[in-house]
Write a structure and sequence with these properties.
Length: about 425
């Protein structure tokens, strides 16, 4: 599960390393060159390295022209490539024309003064001009490295945006051990935990289809110290880590502490998620068991507490803000991000508008019909549901939902059996 995090970290590490290469190369070059020219090597190295945008290097290249790297081969006195004779000891530094005795440059074919052909043996100078190869390499790196950095960062950004984890979460909590007798995989796992010490145990099953990974979790909190409130939150993928499913247990006052809490989470993402569990805000360890056998959230026994929870929250009126807010939270809309609601109660059809701010990346790729249908069925006088996130907008009316179902969507709020049948058929 850490593969995605490592690959996302590579562009940042590459950028940091590449940006260090140029100052190091400049510092080494300036120190070496300034030493050869008899200049203050340490001072000019500091100026060249720490001045912004190559200003220090440019100043050094201008100033260094007054300081030569050439020296007389006999007395080591500083000379330039224009000197024919060392002014200190009189050593001849250049060959002379056999006809006019003028100094000859090593690149001449004929004497520039009299036109006499220059013999091959006369083309060598006692002090040759040194080619500054390192400066060319540094200038090449100064152009190439930023280009590489920008390319790497652009590639990383494209990869990051292209694999942004659009997620959906379904949760059920407060399950009884008896509810799992029909599933041999889960029941045998729970049976094996009877002799274990208190703690948090997780059974995980993953299936990857196309671009999405569906992960089913059974979370068994054995030996709970207090009454607990359960919640699950999906955290989208970043440069530094894969998408994360954060499960939280928070102590609540009142009531008798149960011996255990069993919860289910159905999590759909575009990468393999990381599971983190928190108790009263503190991250805790858990024992994970993976299985290749399905522990699907959509099994019949899994819907029972969810149906009870939804049905207990239904309301006759869209104007009942508290009840409507609770229903939204219990559907998939509550897990997508931060949102506000607007109620249209002045005239029929009465409407519910869910507005996400900031906008949710990839929300247009999700199917919102299930959650919108549940709201339409469980709020008796609700005429339509509208979902808004940035430029994206989705609307489902009660009449359109009724046409799709083949029966009145309001029947979902008439009985638990109707609601159960709807969810079971959806699972099948």
């Amino acid at each position: 599960m850490a593969i995605y995090s490592i690959w996302m970290l590579i562009p940042i590490l590459a950028a940091a390393l590449l940006f260090l290469v140029i100052p190091i190369m400049i510092g080494m070059y300036v120190y070496r060159d300034a030493t050869l020219r008899g200049m203050n090597a340490v001072l000019w190295t500091l100026i060249a390295v720490f001045s912004p945008t190559f200003i220090g290097l440019i100043i050094y290249l201008i100033v260094r022209n007054d300081h030569t790297t050439l020296k007389c081969p006999k007395c080591q006195y500083p000379v330039t490539d224009h000197y024919a004779i060392c002014p200190q000891c009189g050593t001849q530094l250049k060959s002379r024309c056999q006809r006019c005795n003028s100094p000859i440059e090593s690149s001449w074919e004929v004497c520039a003064i009299c036109g006499e052909p220059v013999a091959e043996e006369s083309r060598s100078a006692a002090v040759g001009v040194q080619n500054d190869k390192w400066l060319g390499k540094i200038l090449f790196a100064a152009i190439l490295i930023p280009f590489i950095v920008v390319s790497v960062l652009a590639f990383g950004l494209v990869a990051y945006r292209g694999t942004f984890s659009t997620s959906s979460i379904g949760t059920v909590s407060g399950m009884n051990i008896e509810d799992y007798y029909e599933n041999k995989t889960i029941s045998s796992w729970i049976e094996d935990l009877k002799l274990t010490e208190d703690g948090i145990y997780v059974l995980e099953h993953q299936v990857t289809t196309g671009d999405n990974t569906r992960t089913n979790y059974i979370v068994y909190y054995k030996g709970t110290p207090n009454m607990l409130d359960f919640s699950a939150e999906g955290l989208s993928r970043s440069f530094f880590k894969s998408s994360t499913l954060k499960i939280s247990y928070n102590s609540i006052s009142g009531g008798q502490s149960p011996d255990y809490v069993i919860s289910q989470v159905d999590y759909v993402t575009k990468d393999v998620p990381i599971l983190e569990i928190y108790v009263d805000g503190k991250k805790v360890d858990y024992k994970l068991t993976r299985t290749s056998e399905p522990i699907s959230f959509n099994e019949n026994f899994s819907w029972k507490p969810y149906v009870e929870d939804l049905f207990a929250s239904k309301t006759d009126y869209i104007g009942d803000n508290s009840a409507v807010a609770q229903l939204i939270k219990k559907t998939g809309f509550g897990a997508l991000g931060n949102y506000s609601i607007e109620l249209e109660t002045n005239m029929e059809p009465y409407g519910l508008r869910i507005i996400y701010s900031p906008s949710v990346e990839g929300i247009s790729e999700l199917d919102h019909s299930l959650d919108a249908t549940l709201l339409l069925g469980l709020v008796k006088n609700l005429g339509y549901v509208e979902v808004i996130s940035g430029d994206f907008s989705y609307t489902l009316s009660s009449s359109d939902s009724t046409d799709t179902l083949g029966y009145d969507v309001k029947d979902l709020g008439e009985s638990r059996e109707n609601l159960m049948e709807f969810l079971e058929n959806l699972g099948n």
